[in-house]
Amino acid sequence: MKNVTVIGELNCGRNYYSNVKVELWEADTVGPDDKLNTTYTNSSGQFKVFGQAREIRNIEPYLKVYHFCQNGVHDVRCEITDRFDVPKQYQGKLYNLGLIDLSIATKKRKKKCH
């Protein structure tokens, strides 16, 4: 079994962002990606998620973060999904994503407005 643990802290602007859904995924070249685990940020915006997968080669983990942070405020009109890749050298180790301000768009951002 290959595994990884990811920790981090999420803000929306200058505020802690609590109850944000964080999923740990593993990219597959053949077939659909595998969801390894799900967690939510605590009242301080912090999270810790562990996942493992049966793979012959190294796993290619990434996070999906689902939120409503736009321009530093919580706005439920649009759901946003940000993807953060976990560097491969952290397989079997702890990766600290650090402090992420979700009001800043990432390259791998998807936005769905109602």
From TrEMBL:
Pfam families: TTR-52. It is found in: Secreted. One of its GO terms (cellular component) is cell surface. The keyword Signal applies. The keyword Secreted applies. InterPro entries: Transthyretin-like, Transthyretin-like_sf. Keywords: Secreted, Signal. Belongs to the nematode transthyretin-like family. This is Transthyretin-like family protein.
